[in-house]
Each structure stands twice: as C-alpha cells, then as structure tokens.
Amino acid sequence: MKKLLFITLMALLLPVLASASDYNYITQDAMRSKLDAKAQVAIIDICPIDQFAKGHLPGSIETNAYPVKTDEERAQLDNAVPALKASGDNIVIVCPGGRGGAKRTYDYYKAQGIDENRLFILEKGMNNWPYQTAIN
C-alpha cells in the first residue's frame, strides 16, 4: 500500500518538477557581471509603469506588459520581436518577481520563433535586485 501511494505521488509530482526546469534562468550576480562588462544582451522589462519608473536595469526595453495574461499585454511584447529576431544577442526577461509573468513572456517569445537558447529569466526579478546598477 505504501509503495502504491509513493508511486502515485511521484506520478503526480513528476510533471510539476519537470516543468520547473523548463526555463533558462540567469542569476542576479551573473546579470550584474554582464552589466558591468557591458555585454551585448537584450533586456526585456515587463514591470508595470510605476515600478519601471522607480528603477530598472540599464538598457532595458520597457514593455509594461506585466502580468502578460491578456492579448493586450502580449501585444506590448510584440514591438520588440523584430529586433530580437534580427539580433543574435541573449535575451533577459525582467519582471517583478521572476516567476509567472516572466515565464509567460518566455513562452510567448518562444512561440514567436525566438530561439529558446537565447531566452533567460532574471532569477528573483526586479523586486529583489540587490545592486545599485538599477537606474531611474
């Protein structure tokens, strides 16, 4: 009975655990290093207008698409698609917490034909950015 319960639980949890690793992430330390080195990277900031105004990473493309749940919010991501497709640069998606909105943006850009190997989510998002490199 215990073995059956364990197998059932694993069958239910495995898809959840597998989906947690379906995204590429960049740590805040690694992103800071890229900024300090002035590395070529496209930064797509989906934070709301007021949060973007309070502080954002240098060179960020402001979309204000958060939480990326409606067609209107997804349309705000479209303006950057041609430039992202034309460039070979990696793309870092910045949202308030580095979770749902960033994942929806990642999935949307992937569906638009942008190579998933170029897409990264900033871990912990802008709410937890510990450095002074954010500008306003």
Strand content: 5-15%
In angstroms, what separates the terminal alpha carbons?
Answer: 59 Å
CATH architecture: 3-Layer(aba) Sandwich
**SSE sequence, one letter per element:** HEHEHEHHEHE
Which structural class fits the helix and strand makeup?
alpha/beta
Number of individual domains: 1
CATH superfamily: Rhodanese-like domain
Major sheet: order of its strands?
1-5-4-2-3
Overall shape: it is globular
Major β-sheet annotation: 5 strands, parallel
Count helical runs: 6
Share of helix, binned:
40-55%
Looking at the structure, the CATH topology is Oxidized Rhodanese, domain 1
Highest-level CATH class: Alpha Beta
Report mean pLDDT, rounded to a whole number.
Answer: 87
Q: What does this molecule look like?
A:
This protein is of the alpha/beta class and 136 residues long. It has one domain: Oxidized Rhodanese, domain 1 (3-Layer(aba) Sandwich). Helices cover 44% and strands 14% of the residues. The protein is built from 6 helices and 5 strands. It has helices at 2-20, 28-36, 49-54, 71-78, 81-86, 100-111; strands spanning 25-26, 41-45, 60-62, 90-94, 119-122. The protein has a 5-stranded parallel sheet with strand order 1-5-4-2-3.
Describe the structure concisely:
This protein has helices spanning 2-20, 28-36, 49-54, 71-78, 81-86, 100-111, and strands at 25-26, 41-45, 60-62, 90-94, 119-122.
